[in-house]
Automatic annotation (TrEMBL):
CDD domains: Radical_SAM (cd01335). This is Fe-S protein. Binds 1 [4Fe-4S] cluster. The cluster is coordinated with 3 cysteines and an exchangeable S-adenosyl-L-methionine. It comes from the Bacteria. [4Fe-4S] cluster binds at C69, C73, C76. The keyword Nucleus does not apply. Keywords: Iron, Iron-sulfur, Metal-binding, S-adenosyl-L-methionine. InterPro entries: Aldolase_TIM (IPR013785), MJ0674-like (IPR040085), Pyrv-formate_lyase-activ_prd (IPR016431), rSAM (IPR007197), rSAM_sf (IPR058240). It comes from Anaerovibrio lipolyticus.
Length: 310
């Protein structure tokens, strides 16, 4: 980590292997598989009230939405930024200012959304933020598709890991996200996250340390969801938190997919929730019907990226 602070991000990005794609792109001169280059690209800075209560608190999570992604999810609601790369490039020092400004707005946490491909820049950004007095819990809100070596860089940086666990099936992961190795990679990553943070710890209703695993139930895939939840329970029990999401909305390429073009049914979602409760999960967040609405998808205006405003 000292090399990142002393020498910048160039050494890691000149032959990039930050994410499991291992594309070895020279991101100093161009972009990698993720679409990321030398500078972090940010699409939106906001107070987000719709994260889990232990992340959002009273005023909202201090979300920083990064552009680009190492996955290719055909149902991605954020495809304009994840695949279309809409956003604004910022220096590492400006990134640190953004982090600190979220604290000034009263955010409960700093919520780094899709951060994987910008880990070196985030580490430097947090260095600058802490010089200003930044002290919020840092939430690493990712797809779960992570390299262990990259997570090792975050041991003293991240307080809360908020990974997705999307698929168990290689077929689903390959078809929907072009990552057939997803479960093998993500399961190892989540074990590492739990090792880094320990059991989940709250203070004042806000998660201070630990892992909260998100799983969004997909149409026609409730049995896959159950396999994932069984794995999580057998591995971690109630030492982690789990969020079972009911917000699937057909979008992007899913609108033309025979299985994904329809909404999730109440039966599909409720059966997965009942299965989780029967396993024994007590630290489990569920969503009410009505969570799957397009109005909950942010507008990628670039707000808060270049200038500070309340």
């Amino acid at each position: 980590m000292s090399g990142i602070l002393d020498n910048g991000v160039g050494d890691l990005l000149a032959d990039c292997s930050i994410c499991p794609r291992l594309c070895h792109a020279d991101r100093v001169k161009g972009t990698g598989f993720c679409g990321g280059g030398l500078k972090a690209k940010v699409a939106l800075v906001s107070l987000h009230p719709w994260e889990e209560p232990v992340i959002a608190g009273e005023k909202g999570a201090g979300t920083v939405f990064f552009s680009g992604c190492s996955l290719r999810c055909m149902f991605c609601q954020n495809h304009e930024i994840s695949h279309g790369h809409k956003g604004i490039e910022v220096s590492d020092e400006r990134l640190g200012e953004i982090f600190y400004e979220q604290q000034l707005r009263g955010a409960s946490t700093l919520d780094l959304v899709t951060p994987t491909h910008y880990v070196p820049q985030i580490i430097r950004g947090l260095f600058f933020a802490k010089k200003k007095g930044f002290s919020l819990p840092v939430v690493y809100n990712s797809s779960g598709y992570e390299n262990i070596s990259t997570l090792d860089l975050l041991g003293d940086i991240v307080d809360v890991f908020l990974p997705d666990l999307k698929y168990y099936s290689e077929d689903l992961a390959g078809e929907y996200s072009k990552a057939p190795d997803y479960f093998r990679v993500a399961s190892r990553a989540i074990r590492k996250m739990v090792q880094l943070t320990g059991a989940a710890v709250e203070r004042g209703g806000i998660l201070q340390k630990g892992v909260l695993v998100r799983h969004m139930v997909l149409p026609g895939a409730r049995k896959d969801s159950m396999v994932l939840l069984k794995w999580l329970w057998e591995e971690f029990g109630d030492s982690i938190m789990v969020s079972i999401m009911n917000q699937y909305t057909p979008a992007y390429k899913a609108l033309a997919h025979p299985k994904l073009k329809r909404p999730l049914t109440t039966f599909e979602y409720d059966s997965v929730v009942d299965f989780a409760l029967d396993l024994g999960f007590t630290r489990c967040f569920v969503q009410e019907s009505g969570a799957a609405r397009e109005e909950f998808i942010p507008k990628w205006t670039g707000q808060g990226v270049e200038t500070f405003h309340i």
